[in-house]
Every structure is written in structure tokens, then in C-alpha cells.
Amino acid sequence: MNASLSPKFRFGAESKSSESAFSVAGHQNGKEKVALTNAEFLRQSCREMRISMGPRDHAECPHRVTFDRLVASDNDALDECIAAAYRQVLGNAHIMAHERCDVLEAQLSDGRISTQEFIRKLAKSELYKSRYFYAVSAYRSIELNFKHLLGRPPLDQEEIATATAIQSEQGFDTLIDSIIDSAEYTEVFGDSTVPYIRSYTSASGMTMANFTRIAALEQSFASSDRSKGSDSLLRSNFAAALPIKIVVPGVPGYVQVSMAWAGGKPPANYEKLWRGLALVGGAHLAGMMINVVLQISGNHMLDRVPAMFLGL
Prior knowledge:
The chain is an all-alpha fold. It has 15 helices and 2 strands.
């Protein structure tokens, strides 16, 4: 099916957020930097174990990286990674050239920080806070933190309560650290992959309700999280178990026409018009050929036909 005809395309499930990765050369060669935090130590230790298949539940075995693959480290991968990071972490909002975090981009390019640290610092930046911390409600901010950094909505009210407690007691930056350093982030994204929306599939440990919740948060391919207001979109669903209203834009006229051609067959009216034009054109061409043959043979019996039709 063409992407423009897919219902998922209309609320951003096709290509609004996709997997992108970048790794500095030092990580590819197996050279680990000195661990400065407990989270870094746990990640490095588990990476050395080279576990081929991880646990089904992150809580059972935290901080184990469950994939081991080659990650591109060229300039194209770097540019794609930076673009994907801005698009995902900033909620698909347009970023002006003067708003970009040039220092962070330079640090990632030079290998001073990993993709994971780039995501962490971007989420802690004033650029992010001005959009999704100062300008929105606390509940809305937390649901977007999970969407931007874990690629999913909060799982339940308990997870929201835990995040709220961390933010109120220790601050916004600590909440970001708790998400980035979580076992789930480490297992799913590692230190080289930009987070992406993953609730459209049946991910481990998630209920099917996350599909409707992420659809409600995304809404459309071209929209940004800034355009959806400052209040939570999921509060009523979590607090009172009310159904979620998914706002899906109407199908444009050209898409409706293209959908009528599904299966390689045109609409009935178009097919009748085509056949009529083909019949008229064929008759006209045949008449011209007959007239040419008669003219060559010296027979001028058809010369008066056009004048007869015109009443001359």
C-alpha cells in the first residue's frame, strides 16, 4: 500500500520517527571511556558480557544491552543522527538555525559525547525546557518526556506518580537522568541509537492501550507537540479510564481520488469517459485514413462531407 493511503501515515506512524544511530570510532573499536557514574559502569560491564538475547522484562535484568551491531560513524550518519535527535526530542517542532545547540553538535562530532549523552543534554537544554517544561502543565511535560526519550507514553498512573515525585523533589534534570539511565533506555536504544516512536508495535512489557495512547499523542504526520496545547492528552484516560479520542485529519481530495484507483483500476466514471474518448478518437482517425486513401486514388466523394455537417 502506498504510504499516503495508509491510516498510520495520517498520524505519523510511517516515517515521522524512525531509527537512526551514530557511534564514535572509539566505541566501535571497543575502547571504553572511564566510567564516571554508576550507570556508565553498569552499561560498560553488561556490554562486555555480550548477551545475545535480553530479558523480556527490563526490571528483571536492568542495564543489559541486548543488541550488538555495527553502527555507522561517517558524516552522513552523524548528520542523520543529529536531525533525528532534534525531530524526536523536540517533538517534530521546527528549529531555527540560531536555536540549534552548536556546542552539543560539535561535542558529538568530535566524539567527546555519545549519542545517548547528546540526547540527555538536548533534553536538559533551555531549548527543550522553553517548549516542554516552562510552557506546559506538569502532567503534559511528563507524558512528553516519556514520548520523546523512550518512544512511548507512560505505562500507567503509577509511572506518572513516580516521575512526578522525582521532578518535584529533585528537579527536572534529575527526572531526565532517571529516564536516560533507565534499564529500558539502555536495553532498547543503547548509547548509539536515537530514540524513536515504538508503541505502534507490540513491544515487550507494554499493553495494547499504548497504541491508542501514542496515536492520540502523535495525531498527524506534520504536526508538532507544540501545536497540541499545554494540557495533558492522557490524564482522563489514566485517572478515570475514559476512552481516548484520536484526532485524525481528514483525507485530502487528491488522496480520495488516488484511493479510488486502488488495485490498479480507475473509478467507473473515469473508465466510461476514457472508453468514450477512445471510441471517438478511433472513429476520427479511421475517417482520416479512409479520406487519405480516396484522395490518393483520385476519388473526391468525401470532399463535401465536412460542408454537409456544417450546413454549407
